[in-house]
C-alpha cells in the first residue's frame, strides 16, 4: 500500500521529525512511503521520491523539511483537483498525509470532501489552529523569542530604555503572550485586543515614576492599534495606520516604539525577531510532539480515519475532524491576560 | 490577610517563577506575603521574611529558590504538628501555600486533614505526580537531557560506540522517554518495565549487522534489571543487583553499559547526567506553567479552595484535591512505548 | 586608597564580569572601590556608591552593567574637565578605571594627558579597538549571530530562498566575518569592502544553476554599496543610497535583499538581528577575558601604569597605551576574506 | 595531485569543519582529496573514499567526524610504516594531512622524519598541545562545562550544599580553569598543582562561617591529591589513592566530594560531566578556528611546508614544526591561578 506525504506552507521546526516518525511507523504497517516535493505542487507536477528509513535518518533534530514546501493550492490552479486525482490514481497512492497549517489543511478538508483519502497533521508556530491543544513548532518559537527578551532585558535595564520586541503572530497572540510571560515583559500587545497606546504610555510613565527606569514591550506582528483615543486617530490621518488600526508601512513594532517615545519622552528601541523564530532545531518538547503526531497519522491511515487529523488533547494524541482545525482561529483565552497583568487594550 | 509560602524537597527549575507570580497576584488580592525559609522547617523554627514585589524582582528566570528548601517533615519531628499550628497562630497566618513534590504534598495533605488551610503547587522534574498533566521543571530536565543525548550521538557515531546515558527518574521513566524520543535513542529503559539486557544486546547486535555501528541507550536511574534470563540472574549472585533487580552499588547506567559490552563486545561508554538536570534557568515552557500555577494558587487562597492544589488539565489550570496528587504515581502510558519502539522489557 | 570605576557607551556582555573582578582584586590590594553611575556622568554629577564583594556577588554571568552607562563626554560638557577634576579631588579618588569603547577611551586618553590617573579596559562587541587582539563581548555577539544564521539556513533551504541577515558592525566587519564563516554563509558583505551587488547577484545565479537553490547572505550594518556598476548608481539617483553608498533610510540589509530579488528574481527575505547581539549573558570565553581584564586593570592601578589599558596579546594580558586603542580602527585582515571565499567587493 | 586527510584520537567538536575547509580550499589548488577512514587505520587497510564539495556539504556545524577515527598507531603495528608507505605509493598520494592530538601528531612527526610528506592540524579539547595558542574543541568543551557549573550553582545555593563538578583534563587543567573562572567556582583543582584537600576543607569552612552556605568545586579529572597532610596519607593506606595521589577506583571527583563531606560535615554532591564535553556542535569560535586551520593546512601542502602543522599565534594562523607540538605539554600558566584566586595546592 502506497502512502504519500507532503509538507505545505511556512517553515516550522519539527517538520522533519514528523516525516521521520511517519516513515518509521509505516514500515511496521507495511506501507510504502512516497515523499511529495514542495507541498501539493508535488502532486500537480508528479514530483516525488521514495522515503525509507535510510533517507530519513539523522533528520529528527534538523529544521526545515526534506520534502520542500510551497503555498500552491490545487483549488486555485486550473484543473487542480482533476490533476491531483489523476496523479493519485496514476501513482497508485492509497492515501495522502498532509502536514500543514490553515492553508494546507483547508485544501485537505475540501479534497477529503471530494472523496480523497486524506489524513492531516496540524502545523503552525502561531498555535492558532483549532481542534488541538498545541501544535509543534510553537514551543520552539516561544523558546527563541524568550531568549531574545531575556537578552533585551539587560540592555534595557543598563541603558534605562524602553525596548519593543516584535514577535510573530499574524492573527493571534500566543507567541507574544508566552514569550511575554516567560520573559517578564511589562506590556504585551496581541491581535486579540486592539492596543491602547495611550494606556501603554501612561503605564510606562507610572513605572518610571516608581523607579523602574526601563521596560520591555512584547508585541505580536498582527496587533492593531485602538483608534478611540484622539492621538491614535492621527496615525490614520497621517497614513501610518489604515482604518482598522493596521500599520501601512513597516511592522507594528516600529509604530509602537515611535509612539511610546513620542508620548513618554523615554528613549525607545525596537527589535524585530522575524524568521529566526521559525527555523532551526526544534526543542525537545516539539520533537516529541511531532514524533507522536507522525506515528498517530500513520495509524490513522491504517485504521481508515480519513478526513481527520492528529491532535493533542491534554497529554493524549487523538483524531479530530479536519474541518474542525480551520473552523475558527484558536485565540488566547482571557485567563492569560489576567495571569500576565500586562495587557493594554 | 497574611499568607505564607514555602518550597520543599529537591531543586526544580521554576520555583522562583512560582514565588514571584504568587507575590504579584497577592498584591492584587491585598494579601501580605510571608516567605518561610527551608520548607516546613521555616514554620517549625519561625524563620521567615516578608515577600514583596521588590524582593521578588528579577527572579523569574533564575534557578533554585530564594526561600531555600529542606526535606524536613513536621510529622516526623517531635510535636511537629503542634509546633506548626502554634507558629501559624502566633504569626497570624491565614493560609499556607506549599510548593513541593510527593513528600511536601503528603505532609500538606495531612495538615489539611488536621484543619489547616493549605493550598498546594505540584513540583517535580520527574513528572510523576498524579492529578496534573504536567509539572514545571520537567520540560527543563528533558531539554537538558536531550541536549546531552544530541552531543553523545556524534561521538557514538564517529567512534562506533554504544553510549549509555543515565538520566533522572527514580520511580518513573518520563524524562528517559521524552529525552529518548527527542534524542532519537535506540534503546530506552524505564522503571515501568524491568530491563531485559539480553534483548537489548541482541537488538544492538542486529543494528550493527545492519550497518549501524553505533547506538544510544537512555536509561532512567530507577530502572530495574529483569531477572528471568540466566545471565541476568548472575548479576544477583555476584552481588551487582539485589533480588528486585536494583543495582547494589553505583548507578544502573554503569551496569547496563558493562553488560552491553560483555554481551556484544562493542566498545561502550556511560554518561551519568546527575544534578545538572535539576538546576539553572527554566525553559520558557516551565516559566509560563510555573507563573500560571502561582497565580492560580493565590486565587485558590482567595476563593478558599483549601486542601487542593493547582493542576494543569489540557491547557487549563484547574484546582485538584491534594490527596489525588499523591494517591499513586503517574506512570508513562503504553502509547509512548509504541511511539518510541525502542523499549526493551 | 580609593579607586573609582565606570562603564560607558553601548551595552556589551561581560561588563559585570569586569566590575566583579576589579572589586575582588581590589580587596587584595586594599583599595576601596567606588562605582560611578552612568559613565563619566557619575563623576560630573557626583553620583556613586560603594562597591564591595557583597554588592558584586552573583553578577558574573549577568548581562548589562550594575553601574549603568551613558554616552556623556566630559569634554563636550561645559566646564566638564574642571568638574571631573573637582569631583576626583573632593572624593579623594586616587585613580579611575574606565571601561568603554572608542568614545569612553578617547575621553580617558585626553584626561590622562591632562594629568589624571586613568586606567582603561577596552570594550566593544564590534572588536574594532586597536591595541588588543580581542575585546570581551565580541565572542557573545558572534555566538548569537551564528545561532541566528544556523536557524535561517534551514528555512532558506526548505523554501528555496535567499535570506539576508544583517548583523552589527558600523565600521568594521568582524561580527559579519566570524558569523558568516561559522554559519557557512554564501556571501559576506563588510564595511571594509564596498559591496558589488551585481557580482553578488551573479554569484547567487551561478549557485542556483548548480542546484543550490538557496543562499545565506550576511551583511554588516555599516556596509556601503559599490557604485561603479550602472545599476548601483541608480540607487543613488533614486535616493536609496547617498553618494558614499550608504543607505539613506532603513538598514543596508533591506537594500541588499531588495536588490538581490530584483536582479535575480529569487524570493529573498531579510532578518535584522539588532540589539539581541549586545545583551544578555556573556559566553564562557567572554567571562574569562572580562575577568582577566578586570584583574589586570586593578594591578595596573597598583603598579601605577596610568594612561594605559588592559589588552590581550596571544593568550597573555598586557598593558597597552590608551592612545593606541583609538589611534585607528582594527579592520578585518585580508586573510579572512581568503578563508571565507565569499566576500564580494 | 592527490592529497589524503585523516582524523585520529578522541572526539572533538570542529573536526568536520576542518575537513570541509580543506576540501573547499583543495578545489582552488586543484588537489584531489581522499578521505582515509578511521585515522591511520585507513592507510593500513587501504580504506578511503573521495571527498568533494558535495560529500562535505552541510557538515560545518556537525559534531564528530565523517572520516571516523581510531587510536591505531602505525608504529605499533607490525610492518606499520612499511604498509603506510606502500599505501601512499600505490594510491599516488602526494601528501597526508593528519588532524589529531598528541598520539596522532607524534606518529605524524615520526613519519615526517621518515621522509613522508605530512602536514598536521592540532586537535584537542584539553588545549594541552604546545606550539599553538589554542586548539579547536577547547572553547566548546569550556562552553558546555560552564553551562553545567551555572546550573549546579543554583542548586548548591538553594540547598546549602557543596557541589563538586569533575571536568575533562587528564594532564592539564585548562578546561577546569576556564570553566571555573567563567562559572565563578569557589575552588579549582588542576593536574598542575597537587590538591591540598585539608586547605580546601578549611577554605569552605571559612566561607560557611562568613555566611556563604554553599560552594562550587571544579576539579579536572587528572588532578592528584597532595599527600603531605596526614589525613591525605590515609587515602593511600586505605587504597583510595595510589602513591602518586591518583585515585585507584572511580574518578577524582568522587574522592574530593567524599573527603570534603568528611572533613567539613557539609552535604556534598558530585557531578561528572564526561563525554558530553567532547561531542556535538562546535561553538562559533571553534568553527572559525577549525575552518582557518583547514584552509591553512591545505595551503601548507601547496607551499610544501611538510613536517609542520597549522597553529594559532595571537589572531594569526602560522606554520609550526610538528615536533614542537608534542615536545612538552602546554600547562596553565600561573597568571590564571592568580586571576581565579581559588586554587588550592
Would you summarize the structure shown here?
The structure is a homotetramer. Chain A is an alpha/beta fold.
Account of the protein in words:
Chain A has 345 residues and is an alpha/beta fold. In chain A, the strands form 2 sheets. A 7-stranded mixed sheet of chain A has the order 3-2-1-4-5-10-11, with helices on both faces. The first copy, chain A, is elongated, with a radius of gyration of 22 Å. The mean pLDDT of chain A is 94. Chain A folds into 2 domains: 2-137 and 282-327, Rossmann fold (3-Layer(aba) Sandwich), CATH 3.40.50.450; 138-278, Phosphofructokinase domain (Rossmann fold, 3-Layer(aba) Sandwich). Chain A has helices at residues 15-29, 41-44, 80-90, 102-113, 138-159, 174-183, 197-209, 230-237, 252-264, 284-303, 322-327, 334-340, and strands spanning 2-7, 32-36, 48-51, 93-100, 118-122, 162-167, 187-189, 215-220, 268-272, 308-313, 316-321. In chain A, α1 packs parallel to α10, α5 crosses α6 (174-183) and α7 (197-209) crosses α9 (252-264). Helices cover 41% and strands 17% of the residues of chain A. Chains in contact: A-B, A-C, B-D, C-D.
